[in-house]
Specification:
heterodimer, A: about 575 residues, alpha/beta, MetI-like fold, Rossmann fold, 2 domains, 6-stranded mixed β-sheet, 4-stranded antiparallel β-sheet, 22 helices, 10 strands, elongated, B: about 280 residues, 10 helices
Chain lengths: ~575, ~280
């Protein structure tokens, strides 16, 4: 673990409310208000409706809006507003039922298939395929032939058949969830499948349920009103939204006004359901992108200006010098200084250790030298000098020039540094062309690739160049990454935990290689590591960092045999050694 | 070692089913046999791909076994499933490598710690509460930790929670899969001390799976070295680390860096010479 951990207090929320933050999205918020408002009005229809929905007033047919009839009257002189309010009941009840059935079957079928696997999975998946392939509307019509004009039967059928789509989504999330270590841990604790699903799986899935539910609500509304329009869902004189559209359509030529009213309500509701679904999906995406606890705000510019002040150029023959150097991160709790006024000097041809545990600031220091701090971090005081030139506070364009040229990086995970889609040769060639170290045509570049891969002791460079990253072992990949770093013949190589992800026998080889490269090329290497064994093996000098401060600095002999700071002593004592004679237990 | 070992592995084999029709299945573990005695710590050492984690998962019933037997106190548990397998949770427990993944982030620590109790006989709310408080105290965490979420704890603290969960029902053996490799060295030392202390007070055995020979030497009584799914060397940890017999163990020992520059220089020289000899 090399990255500076975000402060552990940052996230205390366990379950994130999927609606949290929806008020900052005006469209989705408005849609939510529309749906809630109309639903409430429909529920309160007996209180709100100015007239009974079936009372006819044949003297005032098709009257248009008036004080007595706010939305006018229909062809039989019935109050349109009242009919809309009452008519929403079968419609929304139908939609609600369909959604309940949809969520219930989608959730339970998906979860059972995804968690239990085996035969249960096979049977359920086969059933879902059938459900998806039969035309649900025709089945619904068949159901209506049996249960004539039954809104409930029709909408239950629609919800059930549509649930197949949801079940598939839930199943695949569940497949991923059951591989989580905490699910294994619960199994080892002796919990049965029902308990694991209820405690560990279901709460994680509910967040994913909402978006499909809202999108389906829109569909269900369209289908319900469609059935109403055909007169299949609600028996005649009783109002329903679909039925009102049907009645309005009959007098469309005469007076299209009624069509706008009934159609408008349906359209508005349908649109709102969709907008809420979209809004929730966007919110979910935002949450996923927001890195835990970190704020995206940049560090206050006042602090930055301080760092930009000219400071004294170091005079000694150091290849890299860092003076009074501080790094601050903007977090949700305000600015946090992770590196506090440190200073050190690296001489040419030296392997210099940056030693510390997680949170010590060692990796952040290394990355900042390359100008690779995350957007919420910045160097807030001091300066860094590479071979007499100031590199801290340089604009990105100039940094790009230095990066990969005079100063290069080898990171912990070689796979991250390489693109899985391209061969080693083509990636190395690209770096070579960019650094401009192989003037001449293709042949020169190819020759340089061979030379670089040979210099990192890869046995068959031509074969390696033809391969894709996944075809090589971790140790070979790390050698390739080192070769890439060497392409620009850097003066300083920053190696950030270069062997932490590797097996110990492979690690020994990589450390040998770093030492050889230093001897051959005389470049300086900054080795960032938490492993004191690696430091003892490889470094000439080192600094020990704790919580952003340097607590110890000196030759490794000084550090290991004459440590001054209690933290250094504690680190050395805690590091297990295969050479130590006394054991913890025998 | 007493008469019946706590855990006995006899000719264990694990194959992963092949992808495609005519390809043979992949062999992960082949004919592995060993025993873990009462309150004993046995280390399983190997590099990535050696199958050490698979052995642990096979013992826990998380990976299907294709051959051989796993015996707990002399009882065959190899193919137990369902209720019978769940009943074993009183005797076999586990601590996983990644304390960030092994605790459900959405559950307060107290509820995670109550899980092993859920599987046992029903207890009153007060009893569970007392039990959890006792567990937290035992692993050196404050009592109010029960109401907080995993995200509010550091890696070392989370591993203590995982340890507390493992010892909740005083198991006979705990499978520790790289329990400290994600931790800082100072935290690792404290976690290992805690494990030793719990072993003395509770008398549980450990199957300690790791890649780090240096930890093994300080922590385990016996060591098995695993390569490509087979045991290549077995013996007291001090013998394996100081006088390795198998060529692979020798390479492992030679490659482990020690936190002592002068000694390490000497060891490196010896390793380079040995490598030169081997290639010559």
């Amino acid at each position: 673990m090399t990255t500076a951990e975000p402060p552990p207090k940052a996230r205390s929320r366990a379950w994130t409310n999927p609606f949290a933050g929806i008020w900052r999205r005006p469209v989705a918020a408005a849609a939510l208000v529309v749906v809630a408002g109309i639903s409430l009005a429909v529920v309160l229809a007996p209180l709100l409706a100015p007239h009974p929905p079936l009372t006819q007033d044949l003297l005032h047919t098709l009257s248009g809006p008036s004080a007595n009839h706010l939305l006018g009257t229909d062809v039989l002189g019935r109050d349109v507003l009242s009919r809309l309010l009452y008519g929403g009941r079968p419609t929304l009840i139908g939609v609600g039922l369909a959604v309940l059935v949809y969520a219930f079957f989608g959730m339970s079928l998906g979860m059972l298939a995804g968690y239990l696997r085996g035969w249960t999975d096979r049977v359920i998946v086969a059933a879902l395929d059938v459900m998806l392939s039969v035309p649900a509307v025709i089945i619904t019509l068949a159901v209506l032939a049996i249960f004539y004009q039954s809104n409930v039967a029709a909408m239950l059928t629609i919800g059930f058949f549509a649930s197949a789509g949801l079940a598939r989504i839930i199943r695949s999330s569940c497949l991923a969830l059951r591989e989580e270590l905490f699910v294994d841990a619960a199994r080892v604790s002796g919990l049965g499948p029902a308990r694991i699903m209820a405690r560990h799986i279901l709460p994680r899935l509910t967040g994913q349920l909402l978006v499909p539910v809202f999108l389906f609500s829109g569909n269900a509304l369209a289908i319900q009103t469609g059935l109403g329009f055909l007169g299949l869902a609600t028996p005649a004189p009783a109002p329903s939204w679909g039925g009102m559209v049907g009645e309005a359509a009959q007098i469309m030529q005469q007076d299209p006004y009624l069509l706008f009213v009934s159609g408008g309500v349906i359209g508005l509701m349908s649109l709102s359901f969709g907008l809420i679904g979209d809004g929730l999906r966007d919110l979910e995406q935002d949450r996923r992108q927001a890195t835990g606890g970190r704020s995206r705000q940049p560090v206050p510019t006042a602090a930055l200006q301080d760092a930009a002040k000219p400071s004294e150029k170091p005079s000694d023959g150091a290849v890299l010098a860092v003076r009074d150097y501080s790094i601050t991160f903007a977090t949700a709790q305000g600015p946090r200084t992770v590196v506090d006024s440190i200073g050190f000097t690296v001489r040419p041809g030296e392997i210099f250790g940056l030693v510390g545990e997680s949170g010590s600031g060692k990796t952040v220091t290394g990355l900042s030298l390359l100008g690779l701090l995350p957007p919420n971090g910045a160097v807030t005081s001091g300066s860094a000098w590479l071979a007499g030139h100031r590199i801290s506070g340089l604009p990105e364009r100039e940094l790009q020039h230095i990066r990969g040229g005079e100063i290069a990086l080898v990171s912990q995970e070689p796979m991250v540094a390489l693109d899985p889609y391209f061969t080693i040769g083509s990636q190395l060639g690209e770096v070579i062309r960019r650094t401009g170290t192989a003037p001449g045509g293709k042949e020169a570049v190819r020759e340089r690739i061979r030379e670089l891969l040979t210099s990192v002791h890869l046995r068959d460079p031509d074969d390696v160049a033809r391969r894709h990253p996944h075809e090589l072992s971790g140790g070979m990949l790390q050698r390739v990454v080192i070769a890439m770093a060497l392409a620009g013949t850097p003066k300083v190589l920053i190696a950030d935990e270069p062997t932490t992800a590797l097996d110990v026998t492979v690690q020994a080889g990589i450390l040998d290689l770093l030492r050889t490269l230093r001897d051959e090329r005389g470049m300086a290497i900054i080795l960032i590591t938490h492993d004191l064994g690696v430091v003892a093996d490889t470094c000439d000098r080192a600094i020990v960092m704790e919580k952003g401060h340097i607590v110890e600095e000196g030759s490794i002999e000084d550090i290991f045999y004459r440590p001054q700071h209690p933290y250094t002593r504690k680190l050395i004592e805690s590091t297990p050694s295969i050479a130590r004679t006394e054991g913890r237990i025998t | 070692m007493s008469a019946t070992p706590v855990l006995q592995i006899d000719g264990l084999a694990v194959h992963y089913p092949s992808r495609g029709l005519r390809k043979p299945p992949t062999t992960v573990i082949e004919n592995v046999s060993f025993e873990v005695g009462r309150a004993e710590t046995v280390a399983l050492v190997g590099e990535s791909g050696s199958g050490k984690t698979t052995i642990g998962r096979a013992v826990l019933g998380l990976t299907p076994v294709s051959g051989g037997r796993v015996l707990l106190d002399g009882r065959d548990i190899t193919h137990l499933t369902g209720r019978a397998r769940r009943a074993l949770s009183t005797d076999i427990q586990a601590i996983f490598q990644n304390p960030y993944g092994s605790l459900n982030p959405a559950l307060p620590v107290g509820r995670t710690l109550a899980e092993p109790l859920l599987a046992g006989s029903p207890r009153s709310r007060g009893e569970v509460r007392d039990h959890i408080t006792g567990l937290l105290r035992r692993v050196g965490l404050p009592e109010d930790a029960a109401d907080r979420y995993p995200a509010q704890f550091s890696g070392g603290q989370r591993q203590r929670i995982a340890i507390a969960r493992a010892v909740a029902r005083q198991p006979r053996i705990i499978i520790c899969d790289e329990p400290t490799s994600a931790l800082d060295v100072t935290t690792q030392a404290a976690a290992l001390d805690l494990l030793s202390e719990l072993q003395t007070t509770l008398g549980c055995a450990y199957l300690f799976i790791t890649h780090d020979l240096a930890v093994v030497k300080e922590f385990a009584a016996r060591t098995l070295v695993l390569q490509h799914g087979r045991i290549v060397e077995e013996g007291p940890s001090t013998d394996v680390c100081d006088r390795p017999r198998h060529e692979y163990t020798r390479r492992l020992v030679a490659a482990a860096p020690v936190p002592d520059p002068v000694l390490q220089r000497k060891r490196r020289q010896q390793r380079t010479e040995a490598e030169a000899e081997a290639t010559a």
